[in-house]
Design brief:
This protein has about 325 residues and is α+β, with helices and mostly antiparallel strands. Among the domains are: about 120 residues, no CATH class; about 40 residues; about 70 residues. Helices cover about 60% and strands about 15% of the residues. A 6-stranded mixed β-sheet has the order 1-4-3-2-6-5, with no helix packed on it. A hairpin with a 7-residue loop joins strand 3 and strand 4. It starts with a helix and ends in a 15-residue tail after the last helix. It holds the Pfam family MlaD.
Length: about 325
């Protein structure tokens, strides 16, 4: 009986120790878990090269690892990737997640970047957290980049490659090849002709260089002539213009003086035209009559002598009329 009771006591002590060890392990797990933060990322493209335990980098700095990869049950076109990052990693508003390949090994990692300075951290809202935290942890938005961007644009790339191939086929048809061959042949002929005319082209270039030099000399002379013209204008024309301005001012002063003199003489001119001019006309008429009388006297003197002026004119002889007849 004593041996059986000792075995029961030892078994009970072992069970108690195992329970304490289990509790201690759970406590350590909880303590170690408090130093990490969990986030969900929903990728719409394939997550090739990404596995559970793959690294998570923040701006290239290792900051955590992938904890879980699964298809999102509510929308199967998304792949849910849960990550854990260190407590001190600043996962702020504006942070985005991309899948980035590591070298040429085919292994990928989750790259976090794009945080805005001073922005609040990404966290679940207090009200209605189901919209932003469908599985109880904050969600980091995605951004296409690296391999994901290449894979998402692969259909468009293939379509463009197909179009380019068709156009190259049309370009390299037999007809176009014949045309290209003719163009190359004409180009060879033109090259040979230019080579044959090399000396003439060199001479033409030399003459062109001389003409350009002469044009430069002419331009320099024109500049010097312009400077000389400016000096002449400054030394000769400007003083002459000053003298002309003074002459015009003097003539204007003379005209003003003449206008004043005419204004002063205007009453005398009115008297001369109203009284003196009729008397002068009468005097002219009297002088004309006297001139006519003197002309008549002069004619008598010429014809009859000086006595014709003093003696009376001679009467004609009277002859009696004969009655017998």
């Amino acid at each position: 009986m004593e041996t059986r009771s000792n075995h029961v006591l030892v078994g009970a002590v072992v069970l108690i120790l195992l329970a304490v060890l289990a509790l201690f392990t759970v406590w350590l797990a909880q303590v170690s878990g408090t130093s990490e933060k969990y986030y969900d990322i929903f990728f719409k493209e394939a997550v090739d090269g990404l596995n559970k335990g793959s690294p998570v980098a923040y701006s290239g700095v290792p900051s955590g690892q992938v904890k879980e990869i699964a298809i999102f049950e509510k929308d199967p076109q998304y792949v849910r990737v849960r990550i854990s990052v260190d407590q001190d990693v600043p996962v702020l508003q504006g942070t985005t997640a991309t899948i980035q390949g590591i070298g040429f090994t085919g292994v990928s990692q989750v790259q976090l970047d794009g945080a805005i300075k001073g922005a609040p951290p990404i966290r679940c809202p207090d009200k209605d957290p189901g919209m932003d935290c469908p599985l109880g942890v904050p969600v980091i938005p995605t951004k296409q980049g690296g391999l994901g961007a290449i894979l998402s644009s692969a259909p468009q790339l293939l379509e463009r490659l197909t179009t380019l191939t068709e156009r190259l086929t049309e370009l390299l048809s037999d007809k176009n090849q014949a045309s290209i061959a003719g163009i190359l042949e004409n180009t060879n002929r033109l090259t040979d002709a230019l080579a044959d005319r090399g000396p003439e082209i060199a001479a033409t270039l030399a003459e062109t260089r001389i003409a350009i030099q002469k044009a430069g000399d002419a331009a320099q002379q024109i500049g010097e002539l312009a400077d000389t013209t400016d000096q002449v204008l400054a030394q000769d024309v400007k003083p002459a213009m000053g003298n002309l301005n003074r002459a015009v001012q003097s003539a204007q002063h003379s005209m003003e003086t003449l206008d004043s003199a005419i204004g002063d003489a205007r009453p005398g001119l009115k008297t001369f035209s109203g009284q003196t001019m009729p008397e002068v006309n009468q005097l002219v008429r009297d002088l004309r009559q006297m001139t006519e009388a003197l002309n008549s006297v002069a004619q008598k003197v010429d014809q009859r002598g000086a006595t014709s002026i003093l003696a009376s004119p001679k009467l004609p002889d009277y002859e009696p009329k004969d009655d017998s007849q």
